[in-house]
Amino acid sequence: MRPRHLRTLLDLSKTEFLQIIEKAQYLKKHPRQSVLNGDVLAMIFEKSSTRTRVSFEAGMAQLGGSTIFLSPTDTQLGRGEPIQDSARVISSMVDIVMIRTFKQADIELFAEYSAVPVINGLSDDFHPCQLLADIQTFVEHRGSIETKTVAWVGDGNNMCQSWLNASMLLDFNLHIACPKNFDPDPELLEMAGPRVTLFRDPKQAVADAHLVATDVYASMGQEAEENLRLQEFANFQVNHDLMRRASKGALFMHCLPAHRGEEVSEQLLEDDSISVVWDEAENRLHAQKALMLFLLGKMQDN
Ligand code: CP
Ligand code: NVA
Q1: Which one, out of 27, 31, 129, 183, has a CA that is 20 to 30 A from the CA of 194?
Q2: pTM for this one?
């Protein structure tokens, strides 16, 4: 039987997604469960990370498994060994693999040749693990996200595209405000259909939103564009003024790391009555533990 993967959120059905969130909430209350009995997670990081690395490592330890950290600088991955070969070798020795890399196609190729589940820990195009944590966070604060309105303000990047996937899976409305030339993939927009609306003005996008989310102007790998992007995104900061235009009780999310004073004001980020960014970060741990149990077929084992 082929293993299940999380290459994008669309690898899950709506029911499966909601089961994972429910399990995550259970694991948040019961963090130590020795159900993995020595299972090993290999983590391949071609980009930096704090949250993803710590949450997967801590999560595996709490579940009775362990992790191996692999970076291109000290493995053959960085010296050009083909992904097909690396996938067959690594997956013959471990039980599950997480990859953070640039090209989404590299994750898909690895998964094609892997004998064990592969998790996308962020690519240039998608960040599905973050969405599991974000939806868990919304559910904990406000209940079901179905039929609600989420506003994405900023770059049409990997986070925005993951929100697009989530809107298709979970049936909520998504308002996206991006500067011209920074839109998400038009094919994804088309796939999402009428539940997604594109705006140029953040003020219009956040009207009636129950949640406003943003991310850095320049993602990892786009460092050379930082100055250009600072100019292009000048009117896209999420702050209290913008949040006042959203629905009463609207939440603010950011996957972190944040650049205070750029995409989000310091005051909003630190305003615990609106900003749930620390819950989002913590929920990475719980959501990914549930995800790993799901992919390993061990959701019912405790
Ligand atoms: N949000 C997120 O993925 O953070 P890290 O880059 O620190 O893993
Ligand atoms: N869009 C950001 C997310 C970081 C978690 C990046 O790709 O750098």
Answers
A1: 129
A2: 0.98
Q: Given ligand 2 and candidates 152, 157, 178, which is best to mutate, with the most ligand atoms within 8 Å of its CB?
A: 157
Please tell me the distance between residue 35's alpha carbon and the centre of ligand 2 in angstroms. 31
Report the mean per-residue pLDDT for the chain.
97
What residue spans define the domains of the chain? 9-126+282-295, 128-281
The candidate with the shortest Cα–Cα distance to 214, out of 266, 268, 158, 255, is: 255
User: Tell me: domain 128-281, CATH 3.40.50.300, correct?
Assistant: no
Which residue has 């949250």 as its token pair? 51
CATH superfamily of 9-126+282-295: Aspartate/ornithine carbamoyltransferase (3.40.50.1370)
158 lines ligand 2 (CB under 6 A): yes
* Ligand 1 centroid from CA 284, angstroms: 9
**Model confidence over 160-173: pLDDT tens digits?**
999 999 999 999 99
Query: Which atom belonging to ligand 2 lies closest to the Cα atom of 155?
Result: 1
**Residue with tokens 């962020």, as numbered in its chain:** 122
Q: What positions carry a catalytic annotation?
A: 100, 127, 130, 215, 255, 284
Query: What pLDDT shows up at residue 1?
Result: 84
96 φ, ψ to 5°? -160, 150
Residue 242 Cα, ligand 1 centroid: separation in angstroms? 25
Q: Please return the burial class of 176, using the count of CB atoms within 10 Å of its CB with bins 0-12, 13-18 and 19+.
A: buried
